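In this section we walk through a basic example: taking a raw amino acid sequence and producing a predicted 3D structure, encoded as discrete structure tokens. The instruction is simple. Fold the sequence below.
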Amino acid sequence: MNILFLSQIVPYPPHGGVLQRGYNLIREISKYNSVHLLAFVHLDVLKTKKEVEDAREELKKYCTEADFFPLWVKESKLNKYAGLFTSLFSPKPFSVLAHRSKLMERRIDQLLEEDQFDLIHYDTISLSQFVFDNSKTTKVLTHHNIESKLMERRAAVEKNPLAKYFLSLQAQRLRKYEKKESPKYECNIVMSETDGNELKKMIPGVNFAVVPNGVDTDYFFPNWENEALSLIYTGGMNMFANKDAVLYFLSEVWPAIKAREPDVKFW
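The resulting token sequence is shown next.
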């Protein structure tokens, strides 16, 4: 198959979360398919032109082409605050505004005119703004989380009243956007049955498939020579849900494990 893979972030280096999933999915599907990647550059991940080009060279081992685009809200603090301010008055979620890009829109339009794709993969709900109704190509949408649910949970524990209001507002807009956009796709990919059921409760009859996150067992394998018990968590600490999960684990679970196995280590 010829696949157009739209990604919210350049999936390299594969250091946690969405980066690992995107990189390894592309690596695997490229064994049997042709992949053209379009992705946004996050300057807090790829900080220099060299890092961007290194990422492109690595990904072109698996992709026929890799086109990158600037994510405007990541280019400066001024842009970020402008995006947040604008999102207060827009009916669309902040994440959708953050991924606006005429450059990507034109490139998708050009590729659909020049080439015949069998599948377009959208790596997050925020990229759904690039759905072209005149394209007959099969489309699938990945939900790394049910984003509105994630935002609701974050709002529920937020102490700052202004931040709480903003997060609650974003949760409402995301829920509305998910309800509007998800039915457009032949299939919605979710990480778990829990997320799939949440999506189906929100949108009765929506089609979904579970493609769970996994582990690269060729790279990660037990070292049986070291008998010390260890636990490993891999994930970016710049994401609220990840940080919250680790802090909860350390306060509520880790003490019980240490009491039973005093020599255990957590990485």
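Looking at the output, two observations stand out. The longest strand covers residues 34-41. Strands lie at 2-7, 34-41, 65-70, 119-122, 138-143, 187-190, 208-210, 230-231, 265-266. In the next section we compare this with other chains.
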